[in-house]
Structures
1.
Amino acid sequence: MKFRVDRDRLAESVAWAARSLPARPSVPVLAGLLIEADSGGLQLSGFDYETSARASLAAEVADEGRALVSGRLLADICRSLPAHQVEMSLEGQRVTLVCGSSRFTLQTMPVEDYPALPAMPDVSGTVPADSFTGAVSQAVAAAGRDDMLPLLTGVRVEISGEQIIMMATDRFRASLVELTWSPARPDAEGVALVPARVLADTARAVAAGTDLDVALAPLGSGDGLIGFQGSVDDGSRRTTTRLLDGEFPRVQQLFASEPTSTAWVETAPFVEALRRVALVAERNTAVRLSFEADRVVLEAGSGDEAQATEALPAHLRGEPLLIGFNPTYLLDGLGVLSAPWCHLAFTQPTRPVSMAGCAEDQGEPNLAFRYLLMPLRTHG
């Protein structure tokens, strides 16, 4: 095996393919990154028996071949290389990497022991990469991060004809995103609980302005697998992952409550004021929001501790109210709203609040993305 490749493309592809390699693999070869060079270019693959990642990129291949090396070490090396072409070659049990005056020699692992990557299911349809990236960033904002509750670290993806619905929750907040796509069949149906981390990594990898193939194994097939494939400059990225198993909470019905009050706040000033006021909020305490007819007052801190207060213009329809939120969770939702105005729909001070984006003050909310947030007690 011997090839020459662009340094930046190699570093980016290696980092992506090695991103999910286990730190403490159950089998030593799973810490490896599989390098395959042939007439079609270069393929870099990682697999941990749950998620597979394969990056394809252009390269000048002099000798075809395969090698398995430490993925994390190769990623660290590629990230630090000087701005020159990279030459890699397999010599016996070692891979030599030369870039400018830098030279590295890596011990290989037994490539014959590396497991075969799962095959992609048949393509279920395509979605514009830009739409997918935006929808995923909104959906994963509410996904759980606690691996002790693996079910809540996933995003429920529901496919029905030309519509995809993504839902996530960590019990304290929830997200619901709707987008359109081009299914391979007009009667396409499917449900998948996809690890949020895999969705986010996939969304970051695909190139803007391209289409992403989505491949979901048919319901009842027993495969429990979803795959994504998209284009990048001079190559492609492909990933598959095992689906999470379990009964996901009924997130969609949480958004069905009729509001008793609604408010509009300009998003950017709201975010800036919230960040300032939250500086004095102690851990696990609320930032308090007092909504009046034409303004909202943000407060944090109490008693002998540091305190902060700030007022912003707002429009309220309904009775004035006081409500408190975890500032981090509120900022997470506002950060992916992608709209100049924030629309908040209230039922009761102790019930979840639904947020959506608006194009203008007191306009109709865009329900393609909604973010539900549980309030906190407002002592002090």
Note: The domain at 125-242 is CATH 3.10.150.10 (DNA Polymerase III; Chain A, domain 2).
2.
Amino acid sequence: MDKKKKILIRIGSLRHGGAEKVLVTFLKNLPKDKYEIDLLLNLYSGKYLSKVPGWINVLYLNKGEMITTNRLRDLPVKAFRVIYQRVLKTFPSLLYQFILKGKKYDIEFAAIHGMRDEILNSPLKSSKKLIWIHNDLKKTELYNYTDEEFQKFFGFDKIMVISEKIQQDFEILAKIEQEKNKIVRIYNPLDTEEIIAMSEVGSWKSEDEIPVFISVGTVFPQKGFDRLLKIHRRLLDEGFNHKIQILGDGYDFENIKKLQQDLGIAETSTLFGFTDNPYPFIKNADFYILSSRYEGFPTVLFEAITLKKKIIATDVSGVREMLDDGKLGLIVDNSEDGIYEGMKKALQNPENFDQYEDQLKDYKMPFDLENSVNSLVKILDEL
């Protein structure tokens, strides 16, 4: 038998984000007899740590919870982490010598775009370099990637992207055919059978008949939960009785909680925080709402599709592809007014959503877990 391929994978932490969840799903389904994997985290923390298979060697630069505040007592630890990581980023040979013990890897893999420079600046010149892009980097107000910055991604041997929109962005910037050939689209591995099974666990159902809109995601500005709560208030003021549920945690949680109090909607909206199993909540809500300002490919929509939900989603990257150009759910303008109109339509004329339910009845996912994992394995094997 061929000797195992040695792979280094880098990611910030295993907190409760889409990219982290996808990486762990991928690791759980990899054939362990083929690879020897070191997973290097900047911070040893996160909800998905316990889900990493035992055969994967987890290394880290720092340990402990993520520090999202600037409280005086937290500043020394926060400063140490920042300086320590910066030193190792500036002098990668120290990292490879002392933390990775001089190990030689066949493949070095940046599991998120933020690890681009760490992998490209690796002192191992012979390793193949791979990156996974989960976000729409063309959103200039967020990423400030000039064309020149974008060009750096072509330093990788393979660029994995998760949606058609991201693939097109990269193809436009590819200067030569050889660069274009580096781009490969892979749908996020999603275990639909597991989602359906988990949605049956301790099913939670509201007693009243008030329509419930649910949204799931890491609580930070990208997800637009602030917009969702403001629109909720606006619709309540107009006499539309409904409830909002938000599942997720993140550095913006306290701000969203404060906004909830300021708007006086604590009775009609619930912030559940993080839950290991959001699926019973999604299943029992009336509508799934994606209020995001930007996305790469919002996996949570596929989860809502799997559970045959009535969907309202802002027109961000990946949504048209996932909702089959509006056949499987209502796509609204990426603005407060857009979300408002979509929710109002759901409350005023819920029968308009019957067409989406009909389409979803027999809808089969364009991919499955096995196909996604096989595509990833093929890339690893061919590098």
Note: The mean pLDDT is 90.
3.
Amino acid sequence: MSKTNSIISPNSAQTEDFVDLSVLVPVYGVERYIRKSAESLFAQTLKEGIEFIFVDDCSPDRSMEILQEVVSNHPERAGQVKILRRSENGGLAAARLSGLEIARGEYVIHCDSDDWVEPETYETMLSAAREKEADVVVCDYVAEFPRESKAFPQNPGENPHRMLARLLNGTLHCSLWNKLVRRDLYSRLPFVWEKGINMWEDVMVLPRLVYFARGIAYVPRPFYHYNQQMASAYTRSRKPEMADQIHRAWQTVDTFILGRPDGMSHSSELEAFRTRALYSVLTRSERERRPAMIEKFREGALHWPPSNIPFGRFDRMVFRLLINGHNRTADFLLSCREAVKKLLRGKSR
């Protein structure tokens, strides 16, 4: 653990050297949501062998005050709670890494502090890990929009090779919050997160973890509630540097996979992965930066222009416009789609 960070609940979670599960929760700017999130964690049916590590990433609001209130209302969980305060704001990846450094669980799972989970989530997923002797356990999730909830099945299959392929081609959500991971897998990586990478930070990590997994288990229940009522406090603004972060995340995974003996067996999925990354980069970049970003992706490309384009008809059209330099037309179409979305949201109120 960095000497610049401090555990401000020093008497908690010290009764045993190891636990079954560590739940890592970064906290920043979530005063509207953290009460519900923390209550859902402390309501877990898994009563023993669990620890909750909350990482205060210098939250500027009342998030930590509210969290302390919730903790005080659950004395039965007091010995399972650690609150780690970072000395400076580092972003989502840095907060998760700080929590991982002090985690003692055989397994680790992440929970964003504006989301919430069902009571049986961690007991069920841990049981599946034991029963299947799995290194990774996946559950379904529910996207919580202002006017509706939508469930997303996330069946990864039982073969790590197949799960990796689905992460790369975008048919499986590349998030850490609905995936229980054996902590030892993190030690297989030369580095976990890079400082300053707060876009696609999960994408940078999860495919590399899954590559080393020996077994996968699936719990077909929508346990995790992914809050879409606001953009993430870490990523809601679209700044130019986000394009560079996405490029770096893609590059990390691409280099890792191609550097493995069986890497080329995923060439088709890597092309789809590259295409999704490039599209995200271009839609976040200013027009004058787009040619340079395209050139970055062209270097060492498996195919150019990409033929495996994993989008619907509209995004496929916009993507082709962007890589061919028709920026005004692409931006006009994207702005029209955004205007229609705003109109529909207004009518639904």
Note: Residues 327-347 form the longest helix (21 residues).
